[in-house]
Amino acid sequence: MTAFTLDPRLAADTHLVGDLPLCRVLLMNDSTWTWLILVPRKDGLAEIIDLDETERAILMEEIAAASTVVRNLANADKLNVAALGNMVRQLHVHVIARHVGDPAWPGPVWGRQPAVHYAPTTVVALLADLKTRLKL
C-alpha cells in the first residue's frame, strides 16, 4: 500500500471503523442513516478508474461486504452506493441504508438536514458491532 492521507473533511465527519485490504472504513457521524464510507488507502485517487484492474475488483468486493453489513444492520429497504466526489475530491464510496419514508426519501441524503451525531456510548457499541460484522 502506498502513502495515504485521509481528506480532512472525511476525517472530521466520520468515526474510524478499521481497514479492509484496500479501503479504510469510516462511519459517517450522522445517526439519521446507517452510513459507511470506503476510502482506498492510496493518495492521489479521484476516480474509480484511477485504480488498477486488480484494485477495482477488490474495491467492488469491499463495497459488496460493506453493503451487506449496512443492509443487514439497518434492515434497509434500499441501499444508496455512490462515489460522487463533488465536495471531497479524494476517492471514496458512500454506502447508505435507506428506508421508505426516511427524512430524505426518495431524494438524496446530502444537505437535507443537519447531521444528528451519535452519542458517545452509542457510537462505541456501533463501531464494535461494525468491526465484528466486517471481520476487522
Automatic annotation (TrEMBL):
Q: Which stretches make up the HIT domain?
A: 36-105
Cited PROSITE patterns: HIT_2
Which InterPro entries does this UniProt record tie to the protein? HIT-like (IPR011146), HIT-like_sf (IPR036265), HIT_Hint (IPR026026)
Could you tell me which Pfam families the record lists for this protein? HIT
The record's GO molecular-function terms, alphabetically, read: catalytic activity
Top-level taxon of the source organism: Bacteria
Q: What is this protein called?
A: HIT domain protein
Q: Which organism is it from?
A: Hartmannibacter diazotrophicus
